[in-house]
Design brief:
The complex is a heterodimer of chains A (443) and B (594). Chain A has 13 helices and 19 strands. Chain A has 443 residues and is an alpha/beta fold. Chain B is built from 16 helices and 26 strands. Classes of the chains: A alpha/beta (443), B alpha+beta (594). Chains A and B meet through strand 3, strand 9, helix 6, helix 7 and helix 10 of A and strand 1, helix 1, helix 4, helix 6 and helix 11 of B.
Chain lengths: 443, 594
């Protein structure tokens, strides 16, 4: 929307639009100059007429009222209550765009979060203050996994629970309901804040949803000192809304029609995770996105992977086999794992065991591919052992029930069970002293 | 005359202002009431296009724009090392003091502490002739580095009329006076400013013949980079670009390291800040932070400053080069820098070339990489220094045919291609040995022969040949299975596997394996080649491959990289003996221990 006769508007300013019918909508200034302003209307331009529509520049950027009372509440995609309860009393108003965290003031994330999911704890360890997305595809069990993590996540040895900030971005009603119910059943709802932008809500509103959610997350973490787990689902819808606006503004597109600033824009959201020196709280982010056509090189997962500290990728093959969680470990990674595990944090063999499991499963995949050509009979002794190790990895380690909460010792013990099926000489990633201590196979 | 104009248009980091007819291209300007820092990037009539280095939220038409008369410059003097700066050389710790944990706007700070006193020792005396770039004296910047005080390179020839005695001075103190030939009086201080977009001059460029030792086996042994050389490391996400760059920044045998975090993760910069003060330089036993400068413009910081950060970093690197030091600059990632160019170009509505990137992308990349080199510095005394440039590239979709990668390849000589498949199988560093190359191999082989061992080149070639053969054999295995190959070729596969695990893979997070000295690298490669030759011989003598595979020495060879430290390197000779013993007799009875 372009507004004429503008004299005082500033860039990024919040705008109130009044339609002919007296309905009020919100928007923000994207571009301003020569008496004109380009305004993005959050609730869509349906019903706006050239004549009669009035615009008021509010002289401030978009802000979210925050206070402790937000906990347990449900809001719409722009941060207005939609649970039928009155507006919470605001402690203060915060700019939803946030400000970049100074790298100098960041505290490096090192505390291990136990999620109770073996594959994550053992091989893709999540750390407080990390941003670790789930890359999924349509129809796969990413929501079940995210909800399980939200319910079970805990830092061992402390009694601090995570507050959950959940942003539903353009998702179906049933998905949003699933999360709400799951948080309710586990009693976590009273320490959660939900923002819901459904699939049939205006796409443009989606640009704001993660921003208000993360503003609240930052407030809870750095003003109130809570440990916050922020779940954003589904970032693909967010990026698509961004593309829609960019196309409407006739900008030069980058890849696949997405704007050239998609990376920067995503980073402005994802980078709002972390810890701050001298403050108690933390924001741990778990964005969920569905890869269009399961393609990890699509710009959305691609750029996300460049910003986040690793990724949990769900695999279609495993999903079809009925394995939950269907995590494709080869494609997954947690960059901060090295800093969250080991002596004094988890167990000194943790990292090596994780690496060896990767190695073993990777060899198993190669052998499987080979077996399809030459048949099992064409395999040598060691190769056969890898084949077994690969199978037991999937059934004994990876697979677990959505309500099964395994502690780290159990996870690592299961890992050593799998390594026991391999000869000792194959464990080239593990130091001799750990082999002596934990190896269960025939010496 | 200073230009004073008015904002007429704002769109993100791009601002148009009129009334700017006296402003110069690339002049720094103050934008708006909050005095945001910007730079003029295009002039049309009296309208200036300005890229603003801070968030423009709340900026409106009508606000003033004031020129400073100066191009974007960095301050060069003692006090830079150990600091972390944003893209336009503002220290992040002082920004944190002024605006808290989140970065505020319109903050002006001095890049270095102007009040701090340094002990200056002059090396020139009255009546000496000085040239631009000459050394006046030295101060100890950190215990790791003697900071040589330079005459600004653009100063004319002059005669010293007065020079400060040895003593403690702050940066604003005038330490010397000189008269130029045409009678101008020159005042000399311990710092000067230099525009970032202008390469610092030197008197002569040398061929790069000395390798930069990084302690990373696949780099030093297989794809080396020379001091003063250029290298690029492209790879999809998760392939370990940043870890590899951190390894180079940590262990490279250079005097100064400039690390540019350009549009990358905030936590990564924090990691460097947390880790480097605790890491000890293996050569000087001092914390690595004392030789490191960080330029951090993370992905969520303003995009225009990301564009500037590369130039800020390389200008500081050139300054230390001019003192006669070897400097390594790592830029992570040049793709984000290119995206910043693209974003500004899009806002200026320029005609795009491939994938929306501006058509001048290639020439900008060339300008950057050409600032590398080993040179003889200007002025006296005679000295040489180098700037080695290593840039990460983040190709979208790990596709090496995208514009930033293809253009970068044209201007660099060492190419470390990161491979997503290797990373998936946790083969780190995931540098693909078939795709990577080094243009310095022949130039630097002399150094290895003279300083490490005469057989370096041959051992490298022999072991690399095994990897090449494996690559061709793999195709056959994929079609027919391994049993279709004769034993001799199966052996190639086996030894290639050992090379991959025992040499190419290197664990950056293991205390021992993180740095591998050139001597150890050579010995490890020699062991592998020896094993191959002994096995070949054994096969010819009629022994079975199964027996060779069962040799316990294999596990020892694979673990030597992290079980044998650099200090106990003689243990590798013992292993060498065990290795040759293993093949004696009927190959069963040899006990192996490290």
């Amino acid at each position: 929307m372009v507004v004429d006769g503008v004299t005082t508007a500033s860039f990024d300013e919040l705008v109130e639009i009044e339609t002919n019918e007296g309905e009020r909508r919100l928007g923000k200034v994207l571009e301003v100059g020569s008496g004109k302003a380009v305004v993005q209307v959050f609730e869509g331009t349906t019903g706006l007429a050239i004549t009669g529509t009035r615009v008021k520049f509010l002289g401030k950027t978009m802000a979210m009222p925050v206070s402790q009372e937000l906990l347990g509440r449900v809001f719409d995609g722009l941060g207005r209550p939609n649970d039928g309860l009155p507006d919470p009393v605001a402690d203060k108003f915060l700019d939803v765009n946030g400000e970049p965290m100074n790298p100098q003031s960041r505290e490096y994330p090192t505390s291990f979060i136990q999620t109770g999911v073996s594959v994550i704890d053992g091989m893709l360890t999540l750390v407080r203050g990390q941003k670790l997305p789930i890359f999924s595809g349509s129809g796969m069990s990413h929501n079940i996994l995210a909800a399980q993590i939200a319910r079970q996540a805990t830092v061992v040895g402390t009694n601090e629970d995570f507050a959950v900030v959940f942003a539903a971005i353009g998702v179906q009603y049933s998905e949003a309901q699933y999360f709400k119910r799951s948080l309710e059943e586990s009693g976590a709802l009273k320490r959660s804040v939900l923002f819901v932008n459904l699939a049939d809500d205006p796409a443009i509103e989606r640009i704001i949803t993660p921003r208000v959610a993360l503003t609240v997350a930052e407030y809870l973490a750095f003003d109130l000192g809570m440990h916050v787990l922020a779940l954003l689902t589904d970032m693909t819808n967010y990026a698509e809304a961004l593309r829609e606006i960019s196309a409407a503004r006739e900008e030069v597109p980058g890849r696949k029609g997405y704007p050239g600033y998609l990376y920067t824009d995503l980073a402005n959201n994802y980078e709002r995770a972390g810890r701050i020196k001298g403050k108690n709280g933390s924001v741990t982010q778990m964005p969920i996105l569905s890869m269009p056509a399961d393609d990890i090189t699509h710009p959305i997962p691609d750029l996300t992977g460049y910003i986040t500290e690793g990724q949990v990728v769900l695999g279609r093959d495993l999903f079809r086999k009925g394995i939950y969680p269907p995590v494709n470990v080869m494609m997954s990674l947690s960059r901060l794992m090295k800093d969250g595990v080991g002596e004094g944090k988890t167990r000194s063999d943790h990292m090596e065991v994780g690496n060896q499991l990767y190695d073993a499963y990777s060899r198993a995949q190669e052998v499987r591919a080979l077996a399809e050509i030459v048949g099992k009979a064409g395999l040598t002794g060691v190769d056969l052992k890898y084949l077994d190790a690969g199978d037991s990895f999937e059934t004994h380690f990876l697979k677990q029930s959505p309500d099964e909460n395994r502690n780290l010792d159990e996870t690592l013990s299961r890992a050593w069970d799998i390594l026991a099926t391999l000869p000792e000489g194959e464990l080239t990633k593990i130091k001799d002293k750990h082999i002596q201590q934990y190896y269960k196979g025939n010496k | 005359m200073v230009a004073k104009g008015r904002i007429v248009w704002v769109s993100g980091p791009a601002v148009k202002a009129d009334g700017m007819s006296t402003v110069k291209m690339y002049e720094t300007v103050e934008v708006g009431d909050s005095k945001l820092i910007g730079e003029v990037i295009r002039l049309t009539g009296d309208v200036a296009f300005i890229q603003v280095y801070e968030s423009t939220s709340g900026l409106k038409p009508g606000e003033p724009v004031t020129g400073t008369g100066q191009p974007l410059s960095v301050l060069l003097g003692p006090g830079i090392l150990g600091r972390i700066y944003d893209g336009i050389q503002r220290p992040l710790d002082e920004i944190a003091e002024k605006s808290g944990a989140f970065i505020g706007r319109g903050i002006t700070t001095s890049p270095v502490d102007m009040k701090k006193k340094y002990k200056f020792t002059p090396s020139v005396k009255k009546d000496d002739t000085i040239l631009g770039g000459s050394i006046l004296g030295a101060v100890e910047e950190t215990p790791l580095l003697t900071h040589r005080i330079l005459v600004p390179p653009n100063y004319p020839e002059a005669t010293i009329t007065e020079i400060a005695k040895e003593g403690e001075y702050d940066l604003e103190h005038i330490i010397g006076h000189a008269n130029s030939k045409n009678g101008d009086k020159i005042e000399l201080k311990m710092y000067h400013k230099w525009p970032v977009r202008k390469p610092r001059p030197y008197s002569e460029r040398f061929d790069p013949t000395i390798p930069l030792i990084t302690g990373q086996r696949i780099i030093d042994t297989y794809f080396p980079i020379a001091k003063g050389g250029t290298g690029a490391i492209p790879g999809g996400f998760g392939t370990g670009k940043t870890v590899t760059l951190h390894q180079i920044a940590k262990w490279a045998d250079s005097k100064v390291v400039v690390y540019i975090g350009c549009g990358e993760r905030g936590n990564e910069m924090t990691e460097v800040l947390v880790e480097f003060p605790h890491l000890i330089d293996p050569r000087s036993q001092r914390p690595l932070m004392e030789r490191t400068v960080l330029v951090a413009n993370t992905s969520n910081m303003p995009v225009a400053a990301r564009e500037a950060s590369i130039y800020t970093g390389v200008t500081m690197a050139e300054y230390y080069r001019d003192m006669g030091y070897d400097v390594v600059l790592v830029a992570d990632s040049t793709s984000r820098w290119a995206e910043a160019l693209r974003e500004m170009s899009g806002r200026l509505e320029e005609m795009p070339a491939e994938e929306g990137y501006p058509s001048y992308l290639a020439s900008r990349l060339a300008e950057f990489y050409e600032r590398a080199g080993r040179v003889r510095a200007l002025g006296s005394p005679d000295r040489s220094g180098s700037v080695t440039l290593v840039g990460a590239v983040s190709p979208s979709g790990a596709d090496f045919t995208e514009p930033v990668t293809t253009h970068t390849i044209r201007f660099i000589k060492t190419f470390w291609a990161l491979d997503t498949r290797l990373a998936y199988s946790r083969h780190y560093p995931s540098i693909n040995w078939m795709q990577s190359y080094s243009g310095y191999l022949e130039d630097i082989s002399k150094w290895w022969k003279e300083n490490v061992s005469p057989d370096w080149y041959d051992l490298r070639a022999e072991s690399y040949h095994i990897l090449q053969r494996e690559d061709t054999l793999k195709e056959i295995v994929r079609l027919l299975g391994p049993e279709a190959l004769p034993d001799e070729e199966k052996l190639v596969l086996e030894v290639a596997r050992m090379l991959k695990i025992g040499i190419l893979q290197q664990n950056s997070f293991d205390k021992v394996d993180t740095y591998c000295s050139p001597a150890k690298q050579l010995k490890l490669v020699r062991l592998m080649v020896m094993f191959y030759k002994e096995s070949q011989k054994a096969l010819k003598e009629g022994k079975s491959l199964a027996d060779i595979r069962a040799l316990p020495i294999i596990t020892t060879l694979l673990k030597a990289k992290f079980e044998v430290t650099d200090e106990q390197i003689s243990k590798l000779d013992e292993i060498e003996k065990q290795l040759s013993d293993s093949f004696k007799g009927n190959m069963e009875e040899v006990k192996v221990s490290v």
